[in-house]
Amino acid sequence: RDGYMHGTGSYTWVDGPTYRGHFYNNSITGTGTYIWPGSGTYTGEVSNGRRHGFGRLSFELGAGCYEGYWARGLRDGYGKLSFNEEGTCYYEGAWKRDCKTGQGKMMYANGNTYEGNFVKDVKKGRGTMVWNSG
């Protein structure tokens, strides 16, 4: 529209990434999918070209995924980060500015679990650690 990207379409950068989804007055805004070849895929809400709102970021080669809320391109709000494809190792809970901050649960691949408070990715404050004895 008037020389601007507006509506639904796709854009591919010279260095490889592609975006497919909504544009508003030449800005990537709405819902869509980013694809980074050899790295991963994001599908969800975007604002001014950044992940913003609810979305899912999947990493290639079975390296897991994050599904939850974003603010200005950073994980922020409630979300779940799976560290492996099997889902046996994950963090589920509160995020702030891309860090585990607030109440959450960490499940380790060996079966151990921690449920409690996190501050900037570190277990801090009240929490309960349960060790897998098997």
Automatic annotation (TrEMBL):
Gene3D superfamilies: Histone H3 K4-specific methyltransferase SET7/9 N-terminal domain. SMART domains: MORN. Its main location: other. One of its GO terms (cellular component) is motile cilium. It holds the Pfam family MORN. It is found in: Cell projection, Cilium, Flagellum; Cytoplasm, Cytoskeleton, Cilium axoneme. InterPro entries: MORN (IPR003409). The keyword Transmembrane helix does not apply. Keywords: Cell projection, Cilium, Cytoplasm, Cytoskeleton, Flagellum, Repeat. PANTHER family: RADIAL SPOKE HEAD 10 HOMOLOG B-RELATED. This is Uncharacterized protein. It comes from Tetraselmis chuii.
